[in-house]
Prior knowledge:
Radius of gyration: 20 Å
Number of helices: 16
Amino acid sequence: MLTTDKSPRLAFIGMGGMGSRMAARLVAAGFDVTVYNRDRERTRPLERRGAKVASEPEGLAAHADIVLSSVADDVAVEEVMLSPGGALAGARPGTVFIEMSTVSPSLSRRIHDLALEKSVFVLDAPVSGTTTVAEHGQLVIFVGGDEAAYDHCLTVLQVLARETHYMGPAGSGASMKLCVNTLLGLGMQALAEGVAFGLKAGLPRERLLEVLSATAVVSPSQKSKLGNVLNETYPPAFPLRLMLKDYRLILNTAEGVSADMPATAAAERVTAGELARQSAEGRDEDFSSVVRAMERISK
């Protein structure tokens, strides 16, 4: 049975770029919020705004009605949720977890099933949007899991998002996010190839980018990165390392459902090569840096 408090006690695990901004919005909206991060220093800004700070996930979950989390990957989710001292161990019957990380649908389903054994609900609810979008509460959220639990959490999700979409059973939100990030990554790879081709054909760089931005075939997401390409600098709004992580999630999930994705596999190889170069040079750049990678390959 779901808890029925009119003003639920919230907890938030993960104070990275996205999590810290989402938690800040919940604090600003007047919710009672407790936060946790492995590096406690990253909780300080939220603590100064009025959030409580927990020392470990189990204790945090024990005193919350809804627990949100946003961490790096499958390994991090398993650690904060399922390890001894993890959040699931402390959750009371009726607690709802909103897991907002981009992780595999199979992990989402496994955590959902384990939680149900304790009468705890888990929603997989990954988000689409940058840190700036998160700061302004304009994310798009894809949700899988129990529909009643989703309805129960809408007042919280609406603080974070301009749109929320219920997709179906556990794992459906995670699957939808991987579909979205397939298009995100392939769109950037296509832009990279188009730019490299245009430059090799002798088109002036600035004029090429100016005209591309005027066409309907270049998406808003791609257009937002043309400044990076023009200036040949790639500050990490969405780091290339996370795009590579997502490509690998996509390809592993596709293999499990027998979906052939040759373009995604090719884009993954370009991204892996570029990330290896960046890592060797101590750089952490945006996923749009594949444009520079394709320019280098073309040369």
